[in-house]
Amino acid sequence: MTRKRVLSGIQPTHDSFHLGNYLGAVKQWVELQKEHDAFYCVVDLHALTVETDPALLRKRTLVSAAQLIALGVDPDKCTLFLQSHIAEHNQLGWIMECLTGFGEASRMTQFKDKSQKSGSDRTVVGLFTYPMLQAADILLYQADLVPVGEDQRQHIELTRDLAGRFNSRYGATFQIPEAYIMKAGAKINDLQDPTSKMSKSAASMQGVIEIMDSPEINAKKIKSSMTDTGREVRFDEKEKPGISNLLTIHSSLSGRSISELENEFEGKGYGDFKSAVAEVVVDYLAPIRTRTLELLADESALVEILRVGAAKARVVASETLVKTYKNLGIVT
Ligand code: TRP
């Protein structure tokens, strides 16, 4: 009757999560912790692949952990920790690097995209070995399921290949994990460019709802969101991408169905509808922001929560590493 093991990670690369992160990822983490043995980590070592001011990295790491807790990731129900607190990630990462072909790593599309954007002199080697560290994150905990977005599918495939390769060369050591691709159910788009995904890489932040923004700013962003011609509040992604996106946002946060909302706003204009969406978003996010700020106000208590999580994580990680070393013939 053992519960399935889940592991996922999120990078502390921003000052705030946005609504797309929450509805796409964190909300599922919260669901999964109920019936699974879940391990969630803030992958601060992965964030080092982009040069960041130390004070900013520290701040972003803490704000990420605090937001996860405020959003419902419960340190009593799951194991919440910082990747850097467990040295075994680096140790197993090296083993994974020694198992990965150069060509195989060169085929990772995320590496290709990111390195193309910055040019080879500015691309660090850590970006190339990033997927092997990610494989270590997963395999150390013998995870069955890895909840991730579609963009991470290839990294999970690599992780599965590496686990299988290791097991067949050196004997059964790792659980072969499966990607749990998070349902695109709540696909949230940019408020100003409603045919593109809500993302921090957007040209302007006007279309991105950030959890740590003030309620006033978020209400304003919704009210000035781009809408479509016509004035009917109706879900039609092709003809009305702006209104459809707002309907999705309302429905995901209020739990009411799209058709119920269409009925409620029948005969009313876009203005009324936008005000209602703004209210739902603000009512939902304001307490989460307040809770995050409270957690950040007592930094030592927050760090203590993460240390307790790390102590739980270390038990599993060290057991896997010892087994890995033994099977490799490393004298332990
Ligand atoms: N690469 C993932 C992302 O950018 C983050 C990540 C690092 C991760 N390690 C992980 C996700 C382990 C799942 C499991 O989203």
From TrEMBL:
EC identifiers of the protein: 6.1.1.2
Main location per the UniProt record: mitochondrion
GO BP terms in the entry: tryptophanyl-tRNA aminoacylation
InterPro entries named in the record: aa-tRNA-synth_Ic, Rossmann-like_a/b/a_fold, Trp-tRNA-ligase, Trp-tRNA-ligase_bac-type, Trp-tRNA_synthetase
Catalytic activity: tRNA(Trp) + L-tryptophan + ATP = L-tryptophyl-tRNA(Trp) + AMP + diphosphate + H(+)
A GO cellular component annotation in the UniProt record: cytosol
Subcellular localization: Mitochondrion
Residue runs in coiled coils: none
Keywords: Aminoacyl-tRNA synthetase, ATP-binding, Ligase, Nucleotide-binding, Protein biosynthesis
GO function terms (MF aspect): ATP binding; tryptophan-tRNA ligase activity
Name of the top EC class for this enzyme: ligase
HAMAP family, sorted: Trp_tRNA_synth_B
Family from the record: Belongs to the class-I aminoacyl-tRNA synthetase family.
Name by which UniProt lists this protein: tryptophan--tRNA ligase
